[in-house]
Amino acid sequence: MSQHSSLAGGEDEQSATADERDPANGKAPKTDRGRKTLRKLLDAAAQEFGERGFHEASIAGVTSRAGASIGTFYVYFDSKEAIFRALVADMGRLTRGWIAGRVKDAPDRLAAERLGVAAFIEFVRAHKDLYRIIMEAQFVAEDAYREYYTSFAAAYRRNLAEAAAKGEIRDGDHEERAWALLGMSVFLGLRYAVWSDDIVPAEIGAAVGDLIENGLAPEKPPGGSKP
Amino acid sequence: MSQHSSLAGGEDEQSATADERDPANGKAPKTDRGRKTLRKLLDAAAQEFGERGFHEASIAGVTSRAGASIGTFYVYFDSKEAIFRALVADMGRLTRGWIAGRVKDAPDRLAAERLGVAAFIEFVRAHKDLYRIIMEAQFVAEDAYREYYTSFAAAYRRNLAEAAAKGEIRDGDHEERAWALLGMSVFLGLRYAVWSDDIVPAEIGAAVGDLIENGLAPEKPPGGSKP
DNA sequence: TTGAAACATGAGTCAACATTCAAGTTTGGC
DNA sequence: GCCAAACTTGAATGTTGACTCATGTTTCAA
Fold this sequence. Notes:
Largest interface: A-B, 55 and 51 residues
CATH architecture of the largest domain in chain A: Orthogonal Bundle
Helix content of chain A: 55-70%
Mean pLDDT of chain A: 84
Low-confidence stretches of chain A: 1-24, 222-227
Order of helices and strands of chain A: HHHHHHHHH
Number of domains of chain A: 2
Oligomer: homodimer
CATH class of the largest domain in chain A: Mainly Alpha
């Protein structure tokens, strides 16, 4: 496994030296200088797009942040959209990696949900404007956006199915539940990470964990009574 | 006072017949001809923005759909962004109104949530591309976007607090819950209305309702036994 | 009937980039 | 050291589309 590197395209590393192409961008650097320039461009683009949004952002802005020239940009990417896509793909990898790390020791699924929500909030806080990039992808590169969330949903679905098999959660439609849970996280991220920082992630995880675990219905204790 | 209205933010209405000004756009029509033209422009803009997105959309596209000239457009709106904002505000009113109508007879909050989710899915299906406009507002007019969702969240919070007071739901942090529920609806709308039509809204409402009501934890029935 | 306020028109202006390209500079294998 | 491939450069090109404005038409109150 690769150590992911910042945001940049931490591809599969090594491999057969041969062509490390990914269809996203057109060209791959062969020398060290080239790889450094590519990295600088990606980091600069993350900043530029994050701060100004896709349409306000300019290639000139990216290259000047990167300390490169416009011509150089087009050596590494075919277009403005191409580098944007590269960024989205990267964010997906980064996010999943971060959450996976924070969740891997959870004793069961419901605990994992709590940790996962908290981890997600933390992550978004640490990458606010990069997170904007994902959201804007919906309008700039819809397929990349769908891919991003669909793969999250798929992971959720798997986890839920597994947990149901173990009897950790009730049975039900895991697809619908997956999207519901995903939506929760995303909106909590928007509210408590992008728009405000005032609540500690663990608390949000706890509140949501409780909601997910027990729902909103009043408790019905064994001897209970209700109007 | 208005009962219920889960998602609906009971407007303020009032106002005489006089000038329905909103600071959003610059000019208001005085004659009948003017009002008709304004309406045509708004409808055309909804189409144009919905189909092509804010940045791809052009004023020329709007005016040609409306059967008006470019100059006319600038009689009614100060800029491309101004008409976009007007559209977002309109959508907010429309959405809240629709859901309020569907939810008003719910016997209690948990039933209302079920109906609300289903109504929201229905609404988004019926206004797919208009819904895009809301989402894109995040990048074109962030304040309008925040306003849109914040007023939804506020309505949720009120309803939850009220329900808690009546003992219909457990106590807890209603702000966090509100955003969690909002996120659910939005993402289910994305998945089951914008991206696909294959599941009937009531079923989604039922599944989510169950999740919201009981959570995911395995049932712990009083005399306990499980198949 | 009339004239002034409302409204409509659309060619032309103008600034903002994305992208290209021909010409230079650096790297690294031999 | 040599030189081909890799890399860098930024002025020039071309497109696009929001917005202006001078002129013409319609409405309606008096």
